[in-house]
Design goal:
CATH class of the largest domain: Alpha Beta
Helix content: 25-40%
Protein name: FemAB family PEP-CTERM system-associated protein
InterPro entries: Acyl_CoA_acyltransferase, BioF2-like_GNAT_dom, PEP-CTERM_FemAB-rel, PG_Glycine_Bridge_Synth
Structural class: alpha+beta
Oligomer: single chain
Pfam family, one: Acetyltransf_6
Organism: Massilia terrae
Shape: globular
Distance between the termini: 40 Å
Length: 365
Amino acid sequence: MNSIVELPAARRAAPILASGPQTLHLMQPHERRRWDAFVRTCPDATFFHLSGWQEVIEESFGIKTWFYYVQQDGRIQGVLPLAEIRSRLFGHSLGAMPFCVYGGPAALNEGARRMLDLAAHDLAESLGVGHLEYRGMQRVHPHDPAWHTKELYVTFRKAITEDDEANLNAIPRKQRAMVRKGIKLSLVGEVEDNVERMFEAYAASVHRLGTPVFPKKYFALLQQVFGDECEVRVIRTVQGELVSAVLSFYWRDEVVPYYGGGTELARSVAGNDFMYWNLMQAAAARGCRLFDFGRSKLGTGAYDFKKNWGFEAQALPYEYKLYRASALPDNNPLNPKYQLFIKMWKKLPLPVANALGPYIVRNLG
């Protein structure tokens, strides 16, 4: 049956009649540019569908990936990046994608989406995983009882304008006062071409939370692979003291602060509030019109912080299909069985925590 392939409006010239069969493929290294060209124009795609994630995840964590795409008449119709995590502690899973907040199939039509879905199902069965996970912003299988979801994560996304004053006034009064505190203290925001100080602030922050740190190599690879679309922003005092830092992604007209943290000094000088305001200013000047504050778990401090900025929570209905597992995964710090681990981790010397952390986080995704 013939079908009309729709391209985004900016590149649409005339309908293209597709007459050939749809076929499934695994992305090869020489096809990355072609893959990314599709992702950048597909309405369903996100920054986390870009081909660079294959290199980042495989080289940082030694995790196996499969980047499937469907093709028709020489044109990509849909993509689905997948990665396998095999852990004695946290189980065996296949997901789209570990270490990414958004994922799942991104396709132009239902035929391509079904073919990608079947590929994921076949791979999950052949690997013998406990479950398959899609991290989409919308459910792919809302009426399929084989797929489950649960209320755990939300995302915070809000429009911004080119007007700094309007963006500042949109922040609720109490949080706006914290931003102004950082401004009055003359905190400085700088973009850096390395991850050294960013890693220092981030590692200190997650250690205080009792969370294992990602390897520094991972952050360096993100910056190397994604280039201008990955920014490292450091906040310091006028005397040069490190306050906080954030690694952000730029995607279309959006900015996504993804990894951030502050030193002990940050709390007394409102360093984190100033950091996100400084990023918002820079992103607005760069042409961004949406600030994606990212994923948070319900009932956490990060959730409350973002709500206090005037952002509305949007549920993330991640989907799970069980294979060898009998229950949905529950690998998150709110799970009571991890509380003792968190308390112990906080007591570790920071250098020890930084050395051990990468061996644990590769199993979490």
